[in-house]
Design a protein that fits this description.
The chain has 316 residues and is of the alpha/beta class. Helices cover 46% and strands 19% of the residues. It has eleven helices and ten strands.
């Protein structure tokens, strides 16, 4: 590491996000910890995102811009930035989100105080139309800083603990930890690449230090992709889980149970997507066949159906 190298490398994948990109960049520029570099990878945007990023780089030498000629997805874009990273720490930030001015400073302090090589904070979810805000991790779920191991991290994905899925968080990670195993994001995953990346880090015995302070602001809008799970994305997640288990044959029994529960949950979601797709196409027979092959779907289907029948009875 050279004398002028940054402490933190911020990886930002950008695709058609011109509407929000400048605000995201401004929130990085406002950091109280100034020894950072912002690595923006434009993933073949068709709007003005790349031009806007180039202009920001002209104004501040800590910002670098890379362009993909064809779209590779968030994993490939982050890998491009990770390959260029020089900082001791790596932070991921989406191009439509915001971070509080003291976020980097406080996460670095948390890492130092707790001797943690992976730290993450809470998120404030916010909507602009109509305006709305909420905390992702409630005070009841996370009243104080906590350590999260691989079993807990996976169990969150299947509802096995009181915390919601933690794969949405944007941790600060010691880059030496990443490079020690040569880890990169899986470009085959259209969603869930953050979960897969962090799970592979934790599989080596590392733990995540989770801070309840909400310093990352996660923007929810119509163009967000991380909360959508179409059939293709769910199939890719199931395949990634299979690869994870194949790559880590010596997992403990509690971790294997958590993985099994997560896989069952993903399989149920995939069956639900197939069921809903058949219904939209009025393929009733095919929809009922999916329902018959996945009894767990009955409970998911029964509740909205019962509510609808109740409304019909009330009207009658």
């Amino acid at each position: 590491m050279t004398a002028d190298a940054p402490t933190v490398s911020i990886l930002m994948a950008s695709y058609n996000g011109a509407r929000f990109l400048q605000a995201a960049i401004d929130s990085v520029l406002a950091q109280t910890h100034t020894a950072w570099e912002l690595l923006i990878v434009d993933d073949a945007s068709s709007d003005d995102s790349a031009t806007l990023a180039d202009h920001a780089a002209l104004l501040d030498s800590r910002i670098q811009v890379f362009r993909h000629p064809t779209r590779g997805g968030p994993g490939a874009a982050r890998n491009r930035a990770l390959d260029a990273a020089r900082g001791d720490w790596v932070a991921v930030m989406d191009a439509d989100d915001l971070i509080s001015p003291d976020r980097l400073e406080r996460l670095l302090a948390r890492a130092g105080a707790d001797a943690a090589r992976i730290v993450a904070d809470n998120q404030e979810l916010f909507w602009e139309d109509p305006p709305k805000r909420s905390l992702y991790l409630t005070a009841e779920a996370l009243p104080a800083p906590a350590w999260i191991d691989l079993r807990d991290f996976i169990a969150c994905e299947a509802g096995g603990v009181k915390l919601p899925p933690l794969g949405y968080l944007k941790p600060l990670i010691n880059r030496a930890l990443i490079e020690a195993i040569g880890l990169r994001y899986d470009p085959r995953l259209p969603i869930g690449e953050d979960y897969d990346f962090l799970a592979r880090l934790l599989a080596g015995g590392e733990r995540l230090r989770l801070d309840p302070a909400a310093m990352y602001r996660y923007r929810r809008h119509a163009g967000s992709i991380s909360h959508r799970a179409p059939q293709q994305a769910l199939t890719a997640l199931l395949a990634a889980d299979d690869r994870f288990r194949a790559d880590h044959a010596q997992l403990s029994a509690p971790v294997v149970r958590a993985l099994t529960a997560r896989r069952a949950s993903l399989a149920t979601l995939l069956a639900w997507e197939r069921f809903a797709a058949h219904l939209k196409r009025r393929e009733v027979g095919a929809a009922l066949a999916v329902l018959a092959g996945r009894p767990a779907l009955m409970s998911k289907f029964a509740e909205p159906l019962a509510a609808r029948l109740s409304r019909l009875r009330a009207r009658a």
